[in-house]
């Protein structure tokens, strides 16, 4: 079915369980994905803005080389996350009225997952930077590890575990 338009596939596929065509399913998936992206985009853009002004703060010069490295990795992760979470909007513009909703939804799904991975990395770095400034290196390590474990459990492990269950509840 690769290369076929969604209009053609609609005539062939009907999902009686949801009472929708493939195009309707793709529209629903795209709408749902956009709602999720709106939440993530706002957060990552605020985070990126915050990170970009840090070097211009007086205490930034007090960071040691390790903390500066964590900062740079955090900024890179946050910028990368911003790029990936906004990419579906650009892709939508480029594919507008091309009947490529299937490609748009599939690619945007991948962009969202990659963007969330980088956002999780950035949040872990931010926790480490803040705790380093307040409590020192030990606090930074503890905050980074706790943040990483919390994100991994709530964003990935728990949803993947639910996905493997046979029952929807």
Q: What is the straight-line distance between the termini?
A: 33 Å
- In round numbers, the mean pLDDT is 87
Number of helices: 5
Structural class: mainly alpha
How many domains, as an integer?
1
Helix and strand pattern: HEEHHHH
> How many DSSP E strands?
2
Percentage of residues in helical conformation: over 70%
For the biggest β-sheet, the strand order reads: 1-2
Oligomer: single chain
Beta content = under 5%
Mass-distribution shape: elongated
Sheet of most strands: 2 strands, antiparallel
**Structural Rg:** 20 Å
**Low-confidence parts:** none
Set out the fold topology.
Layout lengths: L5 H7 L1 E2 L4 E2 H32 L11 H31 L5 H35 L1 H28 L5
Antiparallel strand pairs: 1-2
Pfam family, one: DUF6328
Protein name: Sodium:proton antiporter
Keywords: Membrane, Transmembrane, Transmembrane helix
Detailed description of the structure:
- The chain has one domain.
- Helix content is 79%, strand content 2%.
- The chain is built from five helices and two strands, in the order H-E-E-H-H-H-H.
- The protein has helices at 6-12, 22-53, 65-95, 101-135, 137-164, and strands at 14-15, 20-21.
- A hairpin with a 4-residue loop joins strand 1 and strand 2 (20-21).
- The protein is elongated and about 60 Å long.
- The two termini are 33 Å apart.
- InterPro entries: DUF6328 (IPR046291).
